Amino acid sequence: MTMSVVNTQLEDPARATEIGAEVYMPVGPVAQAGPGQRRYTALGVHVLDGSTVFIKDVWRDERRLFFEAALYEEAHKEQVLSGLMTVEAHGYVLDETRKPIRTPRIAAKDSDESGAESGRCKMRIVTKDVGRPLGSIRSLRHFLCVMYDACAVQRNLYRRSRILHRDISDTNIMVAPDTNEYRNRNMCGYAEVRFVNQVLAKDKNANPDPACLLVDLGNGADLKVERNEQVLKERTGTPKFIARSISCGSLLPRGDDDEQMPPLVESILNQSKFMHTTEYQVLNNITSGTQPHVEFAHRLFHDAESTFWVIAWTLARSIKEGHTLEPTPHPEFRRFFHTMQRHFPTPNDRDSRAIICVKSCEYWTQILHDDLKSLGPMLFGMFRYILPEWTYRSELNPEHVHEALMRLLLVEIVRIDKEKSDIPLVIGGRPVPPPPGEMAYGPSPDLSLSYSTSVSFAPGSNSFDLPHHSTPNL
Q1: pLDDT at residue number 454
Q2: Which residues pair with 436 in a beta bridge?
Q3: Three-class SS of residue 119?
Q4: Tens digits of per-residue pLDDT, 260-270?
Q5: How far is CA 457 from CA 101, 167, 429, in A?
Q6: What are the start-end ranges of the H helices in 232-324?
Q7: Residue 130 has pLDDT above 60, yes or no
């Protein structure tokens, strides 16, 4: 795969991407600026037939264990995994001599603990799965369905391949491509944890039709691969949505970890029988009396916590279409917004979001616009369940936090269908509120790179590595 400059006579020449014998021209390329940014993304249009692909170039640190494309191949091995992006082509980007493009291995700061120097190689991933951003969603029900199915994909990815995503964000959860190719491929895909269309159909023979597309395994990890114990202790994710213990780089204090799984209430009893191909078990075979010593590491429930933060952040910034804007935003919304917007992981320090970790249904209702206050109890139920440090409860099914989120989402989806009470939604339609008094002199959200950037931080290192940047349509 190569990239060459065309139309050099123009003031702004284009760069054509060659993938084998196919040539694509970029549309709206994005090269992230700033310290540590090493990524280029663009929509590519075929020069002959007009077909589209999405192209992602990264400068991959050669010390990293996992190759993103290899994780996709493992996930889709033998049978496609429904709802997960597929890779059309991947490999090293070549220079004019057909050799991989690499950075010089000269910087001392890029040396590992043994003193070995490390460089970066330019790699490319191409996909035909061009998803749509969450901002394109126009109804509350659709948003809830996308979040439900995103949980299903994460669970199936773990259950089938033992792969963790480790960078769940509002740009890596996308709306499914509206194409027959995507739908037809998923119909025969792996879906042991079933998608919302199958659950609502109450038909064990219904084919999966994911409402979401999960993308960007750039920070993913295959738990089957032998690895240094430090690999799963890396601080990876998008700052706003990163799980609290991952943000801190250590286990949270053990508190109330006896929170009960949200019950299968009467309204979803009929549908709940179709959530799984086999009956879901809350407990593993390990009993609480024999649980092993626990250590800090990225685990599946951390991705579930990130999903909760995506849900809360998105709903808090949304309003009903056509609604008059509120004259005075609630102080708790102002505090929630600016705390989330400014959060950046700090090694060995308390997570700055502790101020918004309030165990109160009233609080989670207050951060929502009046149009969406009926969802306050759902957010509160989710928050209560993601709050504990679940690492101490190794006897529980690794998927239990995702299961809790899905049950609460399903209750709302079924309620909307029964009451015919869907809400036309404008995601991000709520204006940015002024910061509360105690935050008025903090850093401006517009000046920080942390809010849409995925970070990777290795324990023992003194600096962040920013090899991945969460961008729509990847």
Answers
A1: 66
A2: none
A3: coil
A4: 999 999 999 99
A5: 25, 13, 33
A6: 244-248, 269-272, 300-316
A7: yes
